[in-house]
């Protein structure tokens, strides 16, 4: 079990946009907030040289247990969650930045079991999701009946595993790329549907097969991504949120999401004293 020191030592796995942002902020602002960097890893370690102190660069991810840390943050790729998630949880709390990995029911179960066994917690950052904790509360009360999530972005912001968008042209407007369960959607767009995956974790009674998602390419969305969530509950209850998330052309991640991840880490700092949350998913 990860024990609590006065500072929370964080290992960051992945040094893309989110990883760089988090590492920089931990180095710059962490000391005053009780956060410190335990290690940073990237599949190409040269990217870290000169930006991260040498002794904090982890060259080989399978050596992560040589670094004492309370939390490991994955901001890399769902494959890393699959390959290392269970091992991470044997060593530390684990913040899953790519929750689309959890659409695999077997992996989902293995991670929950590992968290329980080792007394560690799986954290799901809210990322670009608005109202995740409210959805989780409605779910836990038994009153949640349905959730629909639509994510609309400029076509240059999608990373699809199939060839659906290779023919897009500037000015073509709106095109629905897929509508179906989040379980079906995650393998098609693993880097684009983390927000939907986070919804599916929050709405655990519906889960990945029961939450419905839609991805829309829209050439008019040059400056932001749009995330719409429609939640329905017992006795006619409903909530509809529309989030406009400023984003550069071609960016997978909206800029407000960086700050959201940072606040999830600060939330972990507060939540890490709550022993009741071990072994389950906790929204931050
Ligand atoms: N939870 C959310 O709301 C949310 C929001 C945005 C992004 N994300 C996810 O977080 C992760 C990081 O996002 P980002 O914007 O920093 O992406 P990015 O593309 O900028 O960075 C990803 C990094 O991981 C590395 N990488 C990619 N595939 C890999 C693999 N198979 N094995 C090892 N390394 C690999 C890349 O080289 C890069 O350094 C992505 O999986 C993304 O989908 C989640």
From TrEMBL:
<dbReference type="GO" id="GO:0009435">
    <property type="term" value="P:NAD+ biosynthetic process"/>
</dbReference>
<dbReference type="GO" id="GO:0033735">
    <property type="term" value="F:aspartate dehydrogenase [NAD(P)+] activity"/>
</dbReference>
<dbReference type="InterPro" id="IPR036291">
    <property type="entry name" value="NAD(P)-bd_dom_sf"/>
</dbReference>
<dbReference type="InterPro" id="IPR011182">
    <property type="entry name" value="L-Asp_DH"/>
</dbReference>
<feature type="domain" description="Aspartate dehydrogenase">
    <location>
        <begin position="173"/>
        <end position="257"/>
    </location>
</feature>
<dbReference type="Pfam" id="PF03447">
    <property type="entry name" value="NAD_binding_3"/>
</dbReference>
<dbReference type="GO" id="GO:0050661">
    <property type="term" value="F:NADP binding"/>
</dbReference>
<feature type="domain" description="Aspartate/homoserine dehydrogenase NAD-binding">
    <location>
        <begin position="14"/>
        <end position="125"/>
    </location>
</feature>
<dbReference type="Pfam" id="PF01958">
    <property type="entry name" value="Asp_DH_C"/>
</dbReference>
<comment type="similarity">
    <text>Belongs to the L-aspartate dehydrogenase family.</text>
</comment>
<protein>
    <recommendedName>
        <fullName>Aspartate dehydrogenase domain-containing protein</fullName>
    </recommendedName>
</protein>
<dbReference type="InterPro" id="IPR002811">
    <property type="entry name" value="Asp_DH"/>
</dbReference>
<dbReference type="InterPro" id="IPR005106">
    <property type="entry name" value="Asp/hSer_DH_NAD-bd"/>
</dbReference>
């Amino acid at each position: 079990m990860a024990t609590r020191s006065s500072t929370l030592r964080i290992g960051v796995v992945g040094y893309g946009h989110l990883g760089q942002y988090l590492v920089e902020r931990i180095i710059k602002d962490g000391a005053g907030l009780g956060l410190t960097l335990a290690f940073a890893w990237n599949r190409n370690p040269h990217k870290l040289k000169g930006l991260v102190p040498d002794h904090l660069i982890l060259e080989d991810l399978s050596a992560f247990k040589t670094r004492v840390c309370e939390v490991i943050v994955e901001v890399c790729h769902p494959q890393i969650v699959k390959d290392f998630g269970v091992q991470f949880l044997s060593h530390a709390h684990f913040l899953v930045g790519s929750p689309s990995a959890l659409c695999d029911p077997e992996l989902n179960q293995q991670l929950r079991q590992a968290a329980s066994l080792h007394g560690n917690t799986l954290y799901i950052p809210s990322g670009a999701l608005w109202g995740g904790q409210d959805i989780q509360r409605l779910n836990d009360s038994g009153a949640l009946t349905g959730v629909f999530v639509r994510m609309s972005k400029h076509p240059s912001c999608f990373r699809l595993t199939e060839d659906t968008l290779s023919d897009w042209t500037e000015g073509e407007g709106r095109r629905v790329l897929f509508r179906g369960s989040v379980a079906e959607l995650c393998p098609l767009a693993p880097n684009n549907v983390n927000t939907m995956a986070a919804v599916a974790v929050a709405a655990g009674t519906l889960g990945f097969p029961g939450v419905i998602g839609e991805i829309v390419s829209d050439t008019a969305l040059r400056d932001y991504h749009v995330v719409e969530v429609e939640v329905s509950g017992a006795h006619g209850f409903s909530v509809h949120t529309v989030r406009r998330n400023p984003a550069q052309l071609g960016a997978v991640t909206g800029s407000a999401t960086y700050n959201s991840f940072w606040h999830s880490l600060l939330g972990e700092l507060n939540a890490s004293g709550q022993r009741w949350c071990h072994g389950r998913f906790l929204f931050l």
